[in-house]
Amino acid sequence: MLITLLSGFVLGNGLGTVAGAVDFLDPLASLLCVVAIELAIRLRRPLRQSRSDQLGLQLLDMARMGFSYGLLLEGFKLL
């Protein structure tokens, strides 16, 4: 689970870095980030209802938290 958290962090950090370096991609990058996080939240409900696959739910949550944290830290660097 730690590897998934760190992979999500690297993905969020990399996306924020690329979007910050190329100015015209900011709206597209923010749209992609919102869509990715919303999809992860929507996929969470079926995984939560099935009692057998708790590992998939935990991995999805860790990836979402790492992605959000990477974007947040990259936003503070760009200020």
Tell me what the structure shows.
This protein has three helices and no strands. The N and C termini lie far apart (31 Å). Helix 1 (2-21) runs parallel beside helix 3 (54-78) and helix 2 runs antiparallel to helix 3 (54-78). The chain has helices at 2-21, 26-49, 54-78. It has 79 residues and is mainly alpha-helical. Helix content is 87%, strand content 0%. The radius of gyration is 14 Å and the shape is elongated.
Topology:
Blueprint: H1 2-21, H2 26-49, H3 54-78
Helix pairs in contact: 1-3, 2-3
Question: What would the keywords be for this entry?
Answer:
79 residues, mainly alpha
> What sort of overall outline do the alpha carbons produce when their principal axes are compared?
elongated
Count the DSSP helices. 3
Query: What percent of the residues sit in helical stretches (DSSP H or I)?
Result: over 70%
Q: Mean pLDDT, as a whole number?
A: 87
Biggest pleated sheet: none
* Rg, Å, rounded: 14 Å
Topology as a string of helices (H) and strands (E): HHH
Strand elements, count: 0
Distance between the termini: 31 Å
Strand content: under 5%
Low-confidence stretches: none
- Supply the helix-strand structural class: mainly alpha
